[in-house]
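User: Structure please.
Assistant: Input sequence and predicted structure:
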Amino acid sequence: MKLHRPSPAMVVAILALVMAMTGSAVAAVSFATNAGAVDGKSAVSGGALRSQAEGKLVATKASGLEQGRIDGKFLDLSATVDGTAQSFGRSFNVVDNQSLAAVEIGSVPGIGTVTASCVDQSAVAGVLDPLTTLVFANSSGEPVNLSRTVGVNPNVIVPLPSGTTHTFSIGGSNAFQLHLERRGTNYVVNGVVRQDGRGTAGAACLVYGYALALPS
């Protein structure tokens, strides 16, 4: 059988077919390599280190209290929240049938201080019942608007002149909040009082929390 030289049209058709098949193969490989990527960027889990997440997408948390949210370490909120914060914590051992002097547990920057004391409110010797008393002192030089909440009890909302104090007591364990305002700047003190060892000879009070200032 005599073979004939393919026509120019046939050569062009064969080359086009080869190029088309090669292009599909390259595309398939490229797709497999970048499967699941968005705009060519792969993702890391919410538990990854910041160094591992550089140049990549970050997945939201799959479980826990922050489920569906991006871990805060990957976010820059400096342009959203502008303020200062400080934490406090102090433990007090209760002395049978005695009241100890109040101790400063923290300050609210530019506005005042918070002190706490723990006393035995039981008259029975050797049986302690701790009561925690907290005092906010306004030393700002100006009146302050104050709102105070303890647990689920109704708010107490009062004006607090400079040089005066606001006192409240917590028996047992509970959370408290002080919301203060002066010249458009808001100050929030969130704290917890825990009573340990009630009815024993070795009771104690624990007070902890933080103070946050949010400028206007």
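Residues 84-214 form one domain.
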